Amino acid sequence: MQTAIAPERKARIDALGYDYGSQPKDAVRACNLCGATVTVTIAHRDRYGYPVTASACPRCGLVWLNPRMTAAAYSRFYDGIYRPLVSAFHGRLIDAMTIQDEQRDYAADRAEMIRPFVQGTGPRTLLDIGGSTGVVAAHFAREFGFATTLIDPAPLEVEQARALGLETITGLVEAHDFGPRRFDAVIVCQTVDHLLDVGGTLRRIHELLTDRGQLFIDIVDFRAAYLRTWSVEDAIKIDHPYYLTQNTMEAYLRRAGFAIAAVDYAADHLHVSYLCRRATPVADALPDPVSVRDLFREIRLVQNAPAGRA
Ligand SMILES: [Zn+2]
Fold this sequence. Notes:
Order of helices and strands: HEEEEEHHEHEHEEHEHEHEEH
Number of strands: 13
Bound molecules: zinc ion
Number of helices: 9
Structural class: alpha/beta
Largest sheet: 7 strands, mixed
Helix content: 25-40%
Distance between the termini: 9 Å
Shape: globular
């Protein structure tokens, strides 16, 4: 349905003075999952009211911002505007300190999901990609005895992680040279939707894992996001270049060489978590065409439901 941004929320966002329209952007013409170049535009603004267009791939159902800010523009975004913007949206302070309580609950919850897969395997190494303040990595290190390395592009958050005694790298996994290092486990928590190249990062993770390595990764389920607000625009936000569903994520994982061992709908009903084992890539894996058709039908239904339907 058509939704409007509440005036108080809009005033808080406007007060930040962030000029999204003038940020440098790149067109992203080819689908990052399947390579198709014909796309369907499904949104013209995001939840903050910024003039964002989102493309959907009619072949596989992947959704992404198009055009999308350049890597340099995203670096500036994460270095100053991201947390204040999310704070303005929610009307409460969210920063590198306050997010740690939420991350502690998340860590405890996710540890229970992975426990059966990692317990009793002896000392092992873990890489946390996009690990933020290190709360999750530190919890996994304590619970399972992992020697843990964290990589994240936000300097203030990496500083918090370093204070927890973790080995830290300030940067992007796509760009960092790990040399011959390999890890027994990689975790990508609440991060994949923020990446600029999901397929490339998953292939990189496949290279960084030992032969029997495991991957934990979770998505914001795009369908859950628009169904809970009954609005496609309100499920889109400039912080997320990508919008994944169970079908597109499962195709991504198979293409990059991951076999899914467990799937978990998080308690918030929004995130979907995957525990995967390293496997042989299936280069042409795609979602079932019926599921793609159903996704587009559902998007049209949500866009055109009368107000009050939700
Ligand atoms: Zn596609």
